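To assess whether ligand presence alters the predicted conformation, the chain was also submitted together with flavin-adenine dinucleotide. Input:
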Amino acid sequence: MKIIIVGGVAGGMSAAARLRRLSEEAEIIVFEKGEHISFANCGLPYYIGGVIKDRTALIIQTPAAFRRRFQVDVRAGNEVLSLDRAAKKVKVKDLASERIYEESYDKLILAPGAEPLRPSLPGIEHANIFTLRTLGDTFKIKDFLDNHKPKTALVVGGGPIGLEMAENLAGAGLQITLAEALPQVMNTVDFEIAVLIHKNLRERGIVLSLSDVVKSFADKAGKVVTFLASGREIVTDLVIFAVGVRPETQLAEEAGLAVGRGISVNEFLQTSDEDIYAIGDAIEFMNPLTGKKYVAALAGPANKQGRMVADNIVEGNKKKYRGTLGTAVVKIFAMTVAVTGLAAKVLDAEQIPYESVIIHPGSHAGYYPGATTITLKLLFSPTEGKILGAQAAGVEGVDRSIDVISAYISRQGTIYDLTSYEHCYAPPFASAKDAVNMAGFVAENVLSGKLKTINWDKVALLGDAVFLLDVRTVEECRRGMVSGALNIPLDDLRVRLGEVPQGRKIAVYCGVGIRSYAAVRILMQKGYGEVYNLSGGFMTYSSLQDQ
Ligand code: FAD
């Protein structure tokens, strides 16, 4: 069997290696239009920032080494120009010699990835405006830093690549402005988590320009002037344009394959032509939670799909792809932010009913030195408690918590699974009831009616209709409290109940939601009807106020 793979990085090379491990007989050719194969896309920002010092560390495999080990004909610098499905041939251009030739196939795998969006804004062709996808892009940016010693940079786009570039350019000593058209960075998380990222970025000296759209660019004595819709102008030595990616669908479209936002594939990752499979950033697939078509630009899914598609080609279609939950993590200075499943805003847009809780557990036992706070938001269905999504920010333990919840979501798990999930525990690593258990416990309290929660945005809308009760200590309240709230420390609540009005909606808060939960339980058992625990407590409130 002769198998051709278009695209020689994450998905394509994963497929090539697996194909060879399954079949010594298959003829395998990989076409990669770039100069390099198997490079570490995800490591590129860290090379630019100087964290990864040696550029050769980014090249995981060379065509020659891969050929030696796997007997795969890897042709870097060769672009597939078109597919002839009837003749089962691809037309290829050797970019160095400009020779155009054809190659036949029995099976074809499309793994062409996604390209950075670069809308045709006036002035965008300025030499100091960069996008980042390939090693070539990376070396261009790095050489610019080394040769021109820039002092300032604007990063346009607050997604993971924009955030990583902001961190790394700041690490290289540049003063950074980050411009985002939306009111928050990292759109895959909800605002309560995003505000923590904003705080973290500002503390590191990064200037945030939110809710403002970049309209055009111009040159000013070799610098880039960026014009925003608000009328603001930002002058910097360079601009990193990182506003997202678009699946590479052109080859597939021109060949008449079914294409939506990405190349359409079935559960075996087969396109509308049974001899052509497609994987990675280029495809669209059903989101397991919404049931709607979804594109995800993530290395994990691309690599796993590469392996799966090789199995399906060699062993017949047996492996079914279940879709991705968009589980992702990003490091932003000392902070880790991770997400899985659906955010509240997506659930709202999809009109999927949900409940949510926000908790602030420690990363490990509080009495063992070095524990840090995790902010964890869990979203779940209000009926059977099916987990719909989770997001977390903190320093340690964030990725572990989200990985566990992701595993449960992919198995249709519920919040009750989280209450009994068994983790390895010793004080330096976790708490006896860890963050995931705690999220499950609070969610269980909500579903069983033991606890009603309310979010700060809803409280703000209710205004005077809600009585705010702060159950932190007097000392904590001296450092700041919500205007109009009454402070009754939790330990005094039973004797000062007379100060809490009957017949009103009451929202109780403390630092992070644990003491207020105890207060809510006291009030409910004393006959107060409408008592709510304010999600995330004063910690979430103060982060929102910082905006
Ligand atoms: P790619 O790995 O992009 O490979 C596609 C290849 O196909 C490209 O090299 C392209 O040149 C080639 N190609 C396209 N068309 C043709 C053609 N006609 N002929 C020949 N060759 C062609 N994901 C994460 O999960 N975590 C991260 O931390 C992370 N960080 C990232 C950081 C950066 C800077 C970037 C750019 C991406 C990052 N990603 C991350 C995303 C991740 O790299 C991609 O999701 C993954 O590489 C997709 O794999 P793929 O095989 O679909 O595409």
